[in-house]
Amino acid sequence: MRLVQIMEPKKYSACSFERIYFSRGSDKDIYQERKALGRQLLHPILKAIDGDLKHTVFSFIPNTAEAAFYGMLEGFNEYLNEQKLKRIRRLGVHAEEKELLEILSERIRSEKVAWKDIKMRTFITEGNSRNDLAAHVYDVTYGCLTPYVDNLVIIDDSIVRGTTLRESILRILDRLHPKKIVVVSSSPQIRYPDYYGIDMSHVEEFIAFRAAIELLKDNGLESIIDKTYLKCKEQQERPKEEAVNHVKEIYRPFTAEQISEKMAVMLHAQEVKADIAIVYQTLEGLHHACPDHPGDWYFSGNYPTPGGTKRVNNAFIDYYENEYIKTK
Questions:
Q1: Domain positions in the chain
Q2: Class of 17-72+109-327 per CATH?
Q3: Whole-angstrom Cα distance, residue 93 to residue 222?
Q4: Is 308 within 8 Å of 300 (Cβ atoms)?
Q5: What is the distance between the alpha carbons of residues 8 and 156, in angstroms, rounded to a whole number?
Q6: What is d(CA 326, CA 306) in angstroms, rounded to the nearest whole number?
Q7: What are phi and psi of 234, to 5 degrees?
Q8: Which of 32, 76, 191, 270, CA to CA, is 20 to 30 A from 304?
């Protein structure tokens, strides 16, 4: 008997989103990776709350974001300790005990703000029932922040479609009357469909995609949408091995921050009184936290197979012909 290699090994592209969302959080490595994802969001969150830790409450949307929440808290506790040390040093050797106690008493405020009454995942629920489900699944802890004064930072593992946030979760959180709600995603912006086992095949479902389309319209760049469609159509007759992901052109004119800002506007229902901000993980942060699972096609559009690339172009064609063209 002899062994003969019949195919060259493909590039290793184990799925990173599986680590963020689907895998069991009790696994040691996954738990540490999810904590790392939360820890890395320190600086963009600080920017979103204008550095006001005194008037900010941190929490999470149960249940899969809990590990990232602990990592986020660790990062902020370390940051606060560094700030305390700097302030104590500035006081010098003649610091009064009252001043020292005031500095040392400062804490990162965290509460269990959101409660999930039943073990359901709205991400994998049928679209028509997702919002109704969320309205019954989630509740809030009243009295855990100062109304109209405190910010609320709440972390989730991902923001995919945004409909549950807009129609249910943000409205529920707004009952507490926070000054500002900062929704944090421990994963990067989900921009592209998946074709390897998860039902995420339509580009128009993603809030990141819809935000990019709206930004193109706002800036008079609709021609990019038309050109992307023509490029995708041109590739239909080519072998899949020659496919190029032209849907990336939709995002290219804008930074991730600009897209997040547009999302915040789109997710801000009229009934919600608090200001809304969205903070996402970066691709670099994802790979730093999950170094052994480089598959990031949900976020980057870099599919591990040519079939995936061909199908994302087809998904854009479907969107253009069945939805976008009707709005022109």
A1: 17-72+109-327
A2: alpha beta
A3: 63
A4: no
A5: 39
A6: 30
A7: -65, -30
A8: 32
291 Cα distance to chain centroid: 19
For residue 110, what are the β-bridge partners? 58
pLDDT in tens, 84-139: 999 999 998 888 999 999 999 999 999 999 987 655 554 445 555 555 555 557 88
Q: Are 240 and 230 in contact (CB under 8 A)?
A: no
Distance, CA of 128 to chain centre: 22
Three-state DSSP state, 237: coil
Per-10-residue mean pLDDT, the chain, length 328: 80 82 82 95 98 97 90 98 95 90 95 76 50 66 96 96 92 97 97 83 93 98 97 91 95 98 96 97 96 93 94 96 88
H or E element: which one contains 60?
strand 56-60
Task: Give 161-221 as a 3 state SS string.
Answer: CCHHHHHHHHHHHHHHCCCEEEEEECCCCCCCCECCCCCECCHHHCHHHHHHHHHHHHCCC
Mutual angle of helices 306-319 and 222-235, in 10-degree steps: 130
Tell me, rounded to whole angstroms, the distance of Cα 271 from its chain centroid: 23
DSSP string for 99-160: HHHHHHT---EE---EEE-S---GGGS-HHHHHHHHHHHEEE-TTSS-TTT-EEEEEES--S
35 near 128, Cβ under 8 Å?
no
DSSP codes joined into one string, 241-291: GG---TTHHHHTTS-HHHHHHHHHHHH--TT--SEEEEEE--HHHHHHH-T
- Which residue in 209, 156, 157 sits closest to 181, CA to CA? 156
41-76 burial string, b = 16+ CB within 10 Å, else e? bbebbbebbeeebebbbbbbbbebbbbbbbbbbbbb
Confidence (pTM)? 0.90
Structure tokens at 112: 């269990």
Instruction: Output Rg (C-alpha) for the chain, integer angstroms.
Output: 22
Question: 3-state class of 87 per DSSP?
Answer: helix
Looking at every residue in the chain, the average pLDDT score rounds to 91
Q: Which of 149, 156, 167, 164 is nearest to 275 (CA)?
A: 149
How far is Cα 261 from Cα 150, in angstroms, rounded to an integer?
21
